[in-house]
Amino acid sequence: MKALACLLPRGLFGRLLALLLVLLAVSHVLALTLMFELDPRGPPPPGPALAAGAGPWAPPGGAPPAPAPGAWSEVGVADAGRPREVGMDRPGPAPGAGAPPAMPRELRAGLLIDIGVRAAAVVLGAWIGARWLARPIGRLAGAARELGDDLDRAPLDETDGPAEAREAARVFNAMQARLREQRDERRRFVAAVSHDLRTPLTRLRLRSEALADTAERERFRRDIAEMDAMIAATLDHLRGDTSPEPFAPLDVAALVAALADDEADCGRAVTLVAPAPDAHGAVGVVGAVGAVGAVGAVGAGTALSAEGVAPRHVVRGQPLALRRCVANLVENALRYGGCARLTVRDEGGAVVVEVADDGPGIAPERIEAMFEPFVRGEASRNRATGGVGLGLAIARDIARRHGGTLALRNGASGGLVARLALPAHG
């Protein structure tokens, strides 16, 4: 195959032209073969018989005798009062012979066969040629889809396909290499910033322990904890899609159940709610998740309730990243609504997780702005009630990295509903 590929033209135009030439030659040979094979009298006889006028295409009665070179022939003219004229033999039917004979039926059938075979060959060749020429474009499109999930995917083959496809593969591989370098540089930057920011905080924490005044020491501790939470949230946002965690099939229902177990000791009001059965009688799950890994702290004091069965709801994702995404939504619901009710279900080829609360909701014109970094639902500067303002921004970034969506809406009976939709796997 490689030796044959070396004989093909390098450009797309040359390959298309070669395909058309081969197609015309094959259709011509095939049409002539079918014409002779389908003729009941068989192929025409050899040359001498044809010269004598034999064969299916000879006129009835055989061919007329050829006149001698330079001979004159009489042509009668039926015109009263005029003598008969003698003239040179002229081509065409003799006067009074009528219209020329109709095309033989066998010839008409042969022409129809020829046209049909050529038309079928053109259609088949166009279909094969389109798939052949579009194959490199399909590979490029598939690589572009995979690039969003995995920057470390194998590069495209730069030696296969026409010259245009090979050039596109080289450009795509160069772009992938640059994106990978930028990601690695971003990881190094985040690691350096994390170290540089937390080192002074550690010194402040150690010095605060030496304060004799207990009240002053407690104020220092709160301020340091607030600064540490801000740094953690900012670094999580900067880290974004640079996490090296691999993508793998993940059961969202199992993830939710595990998070509910982790939150049981915290006493937070996170509830699993089983939705109504679907058209097939299956009951979707619900799950509950606590604020594990979320930014800031939420006051405890209410009990955790968990009900329902957990069927499988599989997506392809990063387990820790999705845990952080849902945890941030629950953190937001607990902070502003006092409770979080989670529902997990299949919906039109997607796994949907909804987090509802009993809070005051958000003005419709401000809903989209809540996903901007450092925008908080509570207008005060109090971190205990207003948070850092990065939880929803981080959650949306994670959802988009998984090919999903995250949206907010006000509930029909009050409160806010966060809807996370992820494409189902398999």
UniProtKB/TrEMBL annotation:
Domain HAMP: 131-184
Biased composition (Pro residues): 57-68
Enzyme type, top EC level: transferase
Primary subcellular site in the record, as a coarse category: membrane
GO cellular component: plasma membrane
Domain Histidine kinase: 192-426
SUPFAM superfamilies in alphabetical order: ATPase domain of HSP90 chaperone/DNA topoisomerase II/histidine kinase (SSF55874), Homodimeric domain of signal transducing histidine kinase (SSF47384)
InterPro entries: 2C_sensor_his_kinase, HAMP_dom, HATPase_C_sf, HATPase_dom, His_kinase_dom, HisK_dim/P_dom, HisK_dim/P_sf, Sig_transdc_His_kin-like_C
CDD domains referenced in this protein's UniProt entry, alphabetically: HAMP, HATPase, HisKA
GO molecular function: ATP binding; phosphorelay sensor kinase activity
One Pfam family in the UniProt entry: HATPase_c
Topology versus the membrane: Multi-pass membrane protein
Localisation per UniProt entry: Cell inner membrane
Region annotated Disordered, chain positions: 46-74, 82-101
PROSITE patterns on file: HAMP (PS50885), HIS_KIN (PS50109)
PANTHER family cross-referenced by the UniProt entry: SENSOR HISTIDINE KINASE ENVZ (PTHR44936:SF5), SENSOR PROTEIN CREC (PTHR44936)
Name of this chain's protein: histidine kinase
Originating species: Derxia gummosa DSM 723
